[in-house]
Amino acid sequence: MIFGVEKNSNNFTMQVIKPMFTFYISFFTWRIPLLIIFSFLVITIQTSGQNYGYFKGTVKADDNGETLIGAHIKLKGDLSTGAITNIDGIFSIEVKEGHHIFIISFTGMKTENIEVDIKANETINKIIRLKPYVNELQGVEIKVGRFDRPIEEITSTMEIIKPDIIQSKNVTNIASILDYAPGLNILDGEPQIRGGSGFTFGVGSKVGIFIDDMPLLSGDASRPYWDLIPTENIDQIEVVKGCASVLSGANALSGAIYIRTARPKLEPLTRVKVYNGIYSTPKYKEMKWWSDVPYVAGADYFHTRIIKNTDFTIGANVLFDHGYIGVPRATFPAIDTVTDFTDQQMAKQRYRLNFNIRQRSEKVKGLNYGLNGNFMYHKTNLVLAWLDLDEGFYRAYPGAVLLQDQFIFYLDPFVNFYSSIGINHSLKTRILYNNTDQSNDQQIKSAVYFADYNFSRKYDFLKDFAFVGGLTFQYNDVNSGMYTGSGSSNNYLLNLSGYAEIDFNVFKVINLSAGARVEHFNMNNNTSDTKPVFRGGLSLKLLQETYLRASVGQGYRYPTIAEKFIRMDVGSFGVFDNPGLVPESSLNAEIGVKQGFKFLKYFGYIDLAVFQQDYDNTIEYLFGQWDTISANIITDPFYGFRFINTGKSRIIGADLSVTGKAQLGKDAFLKTMIGYNYILPKTLESDFIFAIDSAQTELSYDSTSVDPSKNILKYRFLHTIKADIEFTFRKFSAGVSFKYFSRIENLDGAIEDFEDFTESTGGTIQAIQYMDYFNNHNNGNFILDFRISQVFKEKHKLSLIVDNLLNHWYSLRPLKAEQMRKVMLQYTLTI
After folding, report:
1. Is the previous residue joined to 413 through a cis bond, with omega within 30 degrees of 0?
2. Which of 210, 257, 602, 735 is 20 to 30 A away from residue 226, measured at CA?
């Protein structure tokens, strides 16, 4: 037994060793041609002549002296000759002797021309300082994924969220800030990129979630652990849109989210934040259910420093949240027989402690190792449906709310070696453990064992050629009575994979990338699958601030233990197993352009991308009739949700985002982040029979949709708009954020059928009510947030933060009430 999860040691060899051996044979067989090609490139190296000299130097920002990584140095008159500064801002170019003019450029900086006289066998060394258009522009220069590349050279679409916007809001859950990224929606905790998924209660995420390159999805259901992410310790968030399966794994079917924690700088940093606030009375006062104070209170602590050769970071968080949803209050004859807890028990509590320790070896240059850890106790609830459309809008449906006591932690031992010739070795491992007790007498214990070995190297002598490859092992061990659809409460999922990607620059103008990954899955030693996926892309610098990119990639996702085997009752409806569920796959393609601009004193980027995503064996959450009608329809529900392969689908669309900053005066600045996303998600097989329900009815898209006339996939928003605008004058700051979601075009027709059925029972079952909202209030939603802050004596900051300023009454996913207005007062001390 490991962390309370039983293992069958007699079958471990057959379950793990044999598929691993088979996988490695197939992987290395595929890799041999790549090694042959690489060897051919190596032997074609040309040696330089003797009438050459060197121009070397360091490029820095003029305002703060920081070195600039990825600055371009090109020879005027021969743009094929040049270099890019490395991680230390250093470059080196070999050129013929004579007089030369070099063009030094960096995004967001004024381009400079440097004249030098080169003599044979001599080196000219200079420090070059570039002046910025403005003091700062979010997302100008980042470390992206596995390669150190400026964002404009990345071959897929990416959005960047920097830590200042996180600190300016009262972010108690990272999902609330991610929901402002263009093209990304967090729907009741479920991440959706470009409409790649509908609504599944967060189960079977099609978006990979990573913190410091380590996956953060639950072992049983691939549900994101949003509350486990240390919001007090975030350096940068990268949202990759489109298929990211090659380097990010199977869950990254429609994209990936990389969260990077902060590392110590030269000076120690301590930050303490405390906050307190309340929920407002709902827009319709009769919907208020509480008589006490609907409070929210909490505190964050963050400290980081360098102690000789040791990097040390520690963070902590405490949160108390009254909540805005109460327990059912059904009246006779619809008696609540399944919920026996109080409104006070719905309150949430969270206690979290995290740390990062990294030791740099004194004896071996380039070697570092350490341990990252995160521990959380979380008392929360899972609400599946509202009570009704009247006074019970902010109350839960009988049986459709679960109280949860969660203890979750991860420990990440790691070792890295960076050699002086550009070879990097990295071994990262993780133990992710979850123990959840639920009020329906169900317990979930899961342990995820993860290891990733990564090798990368940059070959400057091969025209900035870079290679990254690795092997990944993941074993999910799950014990829960909720997953007895397999015939046992003990289930496991084994995943072995190998990946490789090359990235190289041609004439410092075109950046090319190509990669492949081989995935092998084995579930309970009963079902298994092996699948290769490929991707390729290019980025072309057309002009100084104009970048064209294109990419195409395959995706692949194996069903989770929960999707296949979950079986549970939630009041009058249930969730049903589907052991025959098969993997889904995708093909993603996009073309995009990033254009830098400067208008008066406003400088920024406009990014436009058009895309197409094709899915096969699409996995959707379908509401329908799945069990034979029983004698007691309250305790044995036959309506409910089930995961189904629904055939082929296609999503086409476009992203548009504008990120910039304006210097309005000596001490006045305006930052903007605006994005628009349009999707047209359609089924390609509207008449395909993908299931037969318990009444022997053949189910297809046409027969299960409320509105099948346009072939629009269910639970999608065709239009979304996100924006954040912040004005700063000296130590004062004010900002507004807004989101717009268009109406849901389509949903399961069985929801309407179930509503009619529950209303026909004469009160024996509490009536489910949703269709009136869908037909009369489903007209799009506009949500506005507001904040102001003042810094005192450099160290103290006081903020007033209002979420849902207009107190909008709305729902985004069926039967889920969204939060009313929340007003928070926040104090931050930074030392």
Report:
1. no
2. 735
Identify the CA nearest to 205 among candidates 470, 717, 584.
Answer: 584
> Cα–Cα distance between 231 and 270 in angstroms, integer?
15
195 CB-near residues (< 8 Å, 6+ apart): 651, 653, 679, 681, 713, 716, 717
The helix/strand/coil state of 166 is helix
17 near 496, Cβ under 8 Å? Answer: no
Q: Is the pLDDT score of 473 beyond 90?
A: yes
Identify which has the larger pLDDT, 637 or 454: 454
Cα angle 342, 345, 349 (rounded to 5 degrees) comes to: 165
Residue pair 70/149 in contact (Cβ under 8 Å)? The answer is yes
Q: pTM here?
A: 0.81
**Residue 402 to residue 383: CA distance in whole angstroms:** 7
- Helices of type H across 721-827: 749-759, 771-776
Distance between CA 501 and CA 468 in Å, rounded?
A: 5
Among 165-179, 370-384, 627-641, 698-712, the least confident range: 627-641
Rounded distance between C-alpha atoms, residue 326 and residue 392, angstroms = 9
Alpha-helical (H) ranges within 249-322 are none
DSSP H stretches of helix in 760-809: 771-776
Backbone angles phi, psi at 119, to 5 degrees: -110, 155
For residues 743 and 740, give the distance between their C-alpha atoms in angstroms, rounded to a whole number: 10
User: Are 147 and 466 within 8 A, CB to CB?
Assistant: yes
Comparing 528 with 164, the larger pLDDT belongs to 528
3-state SS, one letter per residue, for 366-389 = CEEEEEEEEEEEEEEEEECCECCC
Residue located via tokens 């014990």: 479
Read off the pLDDT of residues 51-90 as tens digits, 9 standing for 90 and up: 888 899 999 888 767 788 778 888 887 766 788 888 788 9
Q: Which residues contact 387 (CB under 8 A, 6 or more apart)?
A: 328, 329, 330, 393, 395, 396, 397, 398, 766
What three-state secondary structure class fits 110?
coil
Which uninterrupted H or E stretch holds 352? Answer: strand 348-360
| Alpha carbons 429 and 409: distance in angstroms, whole number | 14
Amino acid residing at 772: D
Radius of gyration of the chain (CA): 28
Q: Name the residue with tokens 């031992």.
A: 413
Separation between Cα atoms, residue 534 and residue 528, nearest integer Å: 20
Decide: helix, strand or coil at residue 153: helix
DSSP-assigned letter for residue 245? H
Share of the chain above pLDDT 70, in %: 87
Q: What letter does residue 330 receive in the DSSP assignment?
A: -
Residues 184, 743: Cα–Cα separation, whole Å: 16
The full DSSP string for 739-761 is EEE--B---BHHHHHHHHHHHTT
Write the CA distances from 291 to 282, 616, 819, integer angstroms.
13, 51, 18
Q: Is the peptide bond before 559 cis (omega within 30 degrees of 0)?
A: no
Fill in the amino acid letter for 611.
F
The C-alpha atoms of residue 686 and residue 744 are separated, in whole angstroms, by: 19
Record the tokens describing residue 3, joined without a space.
Answer: 């962390």
Question: What band does 624 get if pLDDT is binned at 50, 70 and 90?
Answer: confident
Determine the pLDDT at residue 35. Answer: 39
Distance separating the N- and C-terminal Cα atoms of the chain:
46
φ and ψ of 600, to 5 deg: 55, -115
Does the CA dihedral 75-80-86-92 come out positive or negative?
A: negative
| pLDDT interval class at 463 (50, 70, 90) | low
Looking at every residue in the chain, the average pLDDT score rounds to: 85
User: Is the four-CA dihedral 146, 147, 151, 156 of positive or negative sign?
Assistant: negative
Alpha-carbon distance of 178 to 171, in angstroms, equals 10
pLDDT score of 789 = 95
